[in-house]
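for the recovery benchmark. tokens below, seq after
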């Protein structure tokens, strides 16, 4: 058996000899004229079928190599087996593998979306794997996988495709280049910018020397970014310590009410109910007045 490499869904041409059962083992010139049914193709262990294009002898005097052509459709498998079944020849077999070393899977998509592609089901694909479209619609693109549903084969990518894949897209899936960490490594930071830092309960203390004017604005702080849990227990007490208490304000209010009442009691009966000077007042403290208190005719001594 001769083993070859190919790409899933991509037509393949290769050279290999065909061996006879007697005489000079390699077929030369007119030793063999292949006919229908002489060469069979099986994909992924499926039933054999006649090859689409029969092999031809490579040109040149004394050539012992035949040229084999497999169509794109015949290459839509992980393992393509080519068998020579002519009784006059040895049972030559060629195995073409399309899954590259290290790859998770290769195949043909059944559908695609703006940021999805439908692969084969049941694949061992995890977040961080890479889907490379090597043929068909969207060829040349490669994106990271954000999630994969084994039951449906739908892989959601981290970004949108530049060209949305479809049922003609050929893909290869590669494992994540970043191996997942089983433990979180300990990091021991002792200095910041060359200066020894200070820590509280393992958390570095950060001191800001200065802030630019208007650096902290309402727009820069998200709604409810600072809530009750973020304030120290005595924060409200500290804020109120410089403010008048409700009791102190009540004392001031009562005092003002008393004083205003006393002032009003001492005024002569020259005020209206709302506290304005009556327009018909003609004398204040013995001084005779004239005018009616309107603009241009104000009260004034006689």
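predicted aa per position
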């Amino acid at each position: 058996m001769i083993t070859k490499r190919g790409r899933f869904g991509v037509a393949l041409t290769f050279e290999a000899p065909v061996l006879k059962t007697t005489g000079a083992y390699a077929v030369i010139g007119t030793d063999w004229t292949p006919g229908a049914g002489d060469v069979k193709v099986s994909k992924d262990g499926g039933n054999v079928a006649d090859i689409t294009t029969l092999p031809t002898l490579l040109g040149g005097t004394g050539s012992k190599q035949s040229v084999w052509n497999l169509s794109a459709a015949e290459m839509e498998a992980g393992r393509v087996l080519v068998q020579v079944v002519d009784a006059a020849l040895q049972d030559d077999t060629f195995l073409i593998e399309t899954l590259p070393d290290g790859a998770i899977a290769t195949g043909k998509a059944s559908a695609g979306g703006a940021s999805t592609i439908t692969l084969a089901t049941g694949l061992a694909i995890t977040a961080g794997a890479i889907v490379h479209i090597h043929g068909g619609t969207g060829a040349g693109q490669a994106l990271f996988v954000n999630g994969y549903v084994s039951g449906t084969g739908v892989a959601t990518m981290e970004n949108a495709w530049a060209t949305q894949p479809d049922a003609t897209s050929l893909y290869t899936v590669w494992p994540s280049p970043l191996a997942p960490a089983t433990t979180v490594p300990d990091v021991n930071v002792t200095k910041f910018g060359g200066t020894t830092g200070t820590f509280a309960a393992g958390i570095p203390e950060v001191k800001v020397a200065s802030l630019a004017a208007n650096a902290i604005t309402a727009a820069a702080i998200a709604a409810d970014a600072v809530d009750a849990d973020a304030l120290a227990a005595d924060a409200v007490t500290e804020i109120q310590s410089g403010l008048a208490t409700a009791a102190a304000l009540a004392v001031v209010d009562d005092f003002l009410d008393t004083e205003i009442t006393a002032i009003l009691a001492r005024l002569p009966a020259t005020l209206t109910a709302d506290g304005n000077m009556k327009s018909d007042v003609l004398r204040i403290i013995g001084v005779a007045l004239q005018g009616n208190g309107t603009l241009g005719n104000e009260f004034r001594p006689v």
